[in-house]
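Hi Y.,

Following your request, here is the sequence exactly as I used it, all 85 residues.
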Amino acid sequence: MSKYLSVFRNEFGKNKILTEYDLIIQSIGIPYEERYLNTCLGKTHVIISGQIKKPSIVLVHAFYATAASWYLNLQELSENFRVYT
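Below is the corresponding structure, written out as tokens. Let me know if you'd prefer a different format.
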């Protein structure tokens, strides 16, 4: 058992939120890749878009938000940057 509390109250809520998250990410309309990074707090999901040779930019969301909070910005930012959310 993890020593960290879940942000989900139950499995139904978790599945509903993750389904909506996937729909938002798929609606971005640009190529992207997903990676998981190991951190001291567990695995962190990262969405990466934009060309590899472009300058990198990291977008950090607010507490308990997700990378999906940046979906309206990703298309334009990905034209000029390698974006990590």
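The first helix runs from residue 11 to 26.

Thanks again,
Q.
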